[in-house]
Amino acid sequence: MLLGISILFAVSLLFYFFPPKKINDLYGYRTIASKKSEANWKLANSYSAKIWLCFSVPSFFLALLANYKGWLNLEMLFAGINLLGLVVAIVMTEIKLRKN
């Protein structure tokens, strides 16, 4: 479970520090709304990365602590928090794009 949380954490860092430069079908926050314009693309990728990072950083470090302490049943909770962050990032980003 820690590996999965670590991957999600690494991906959130990747999107935050190395956002995609141009609209593409391989890398970035790709939805119909985000691909409508370059402005939407940049906004969506920046905004969603920040939100996801807010969830993935604490859940990663708490999962590390849980793994270290042997609280393996809590790793699932932190994985769920990380995935919830991804869902929240998508919903909030789509709302933000509709307002623009």
TrEMBL record:
InterPro entries: SdpI/YhfL. Keywords: Membrane, Transmembrane, Transmembrane helix. The keyword Membrane applies. The chain crosses the membrane at residues 77-95. This is SdpI/YhfL protein family protein. The lineage of its organism: Bacteria, Pseudomonadati, Bacteroidota, Sphingobacteriia, Sphingobacteriales.
